[in-house]
Amino acid sequence: MTSKNETDEGTGLARQATCPACGHHVAVAFFNGGRQPLATLAWPRSVEAARSMARLPLDFVRCVNCGHVYNAAFDYAAVPYADNPNLMFNRGSVWNDYLEDLRDRVLEHLPESPTVVEIGCGEGHFLRRLAEARPTGRYIGFDPNGEVDIGDGRMAFHRELFEPERDLPVFRPDLVVSRHVLEHLMNPLGFVQVLAFAVSCHNLPTRLFIEVPCIDRVFASGRTADFYYEHNSHFTTRSLQRMLERSGAEVEAIGHGYDDEVVHSFARFAPQRAQAEIAAEGQDFFFRAERARTTIAAQLAELAKSGVRTAIWGGTGKGAAFIANYGADAERFPLVVDSDPLKVGTFVPGAGQPIRFRDVLLEEPATVIIIPTQWRARDIMLEIERTGIVYDRILIEHDGRLIDFLRDPHPY
Ligand SMILES: [Zn+2]
Question: In this structure, is the dihedral angle defined by the CA atoms of residues 101, 105, 108 and 113, taken in order, positive or negative?
Fold first, then answer.
């Protein structure tokens, strides 16, 4: 026999946490930094301010599926992005050489007159490099905190978030660029999947270029200074690749730069027909349910107005859901019965009708019986007849309205 404790020991350091890169739910302990102040965004102006800073938990774990490292105790609200923009300050010449090389690699993947959108473009330095090298294209930057000098008009800038569903069909980019953005997001996988979904919905194949810092080298060196509060999410080559694959992308190329401290990838997103179909089905259900609420509420109002004695069969679960959704209040529909003696004596959640035993209908019959659980309606009808309860009509909900169970067509 294993107790819970023995099981925990058996799994070592494993625990449940959701990986922001691949969505996997098992991680192992990676780095316990205790509680430390913000390292890069607070800029204290005095020794007192520095020493009295709030201490935040550094509880880094590693996803066992993709190798991503992240702070399981991270809270986005604790990071004051709005006060001090997270500018990447790097004017070193090695970095500059790297960017030249990167620009050329990106250009290789672009047509003669490309449309390029950069998400989180900052001051637009990279976009400008592309625009200067291939001036026949359109270059559009998005960044709610950015500031781009659009200069001679080759570039455009939007001080807002790029919203794929809205913006993809407007700009129809050949390439979406995202450099040093995804490692700051709580849910980078969600970000990429939203883009993939827009590709499917609008049937617009799109390429994505992602660049993020890479921690592949920390495993050999054992260095720990990378892991502070603002840097909550650390990609490895594998976790970047898994994130793209989990979003349905075809990873065309993966490469490294700046002494392997960054990893980048070109990925191609083709429309996924199943996603568009599922979305359409969901939306169709949504609007049908909205119409049904209006229709059935009107039918109930008419029933109440007609003065016929109506019983609702079932006051918990689906019965309670029916009563709540269609507003079958206790004033107009006070009679709720159930076959289950255990439920008798309790009250309908929300509306508050007392739930009475079905035999109440023997003494005081109802003209109309509404059965919210369609798939049990036949059994309930047999129970009604066996018990000797009389009625005029049984109503069930089908295809957005209340119908007569005995006279109207339905699949139950
Ligand atoms: Zn993962």
Answer: negative
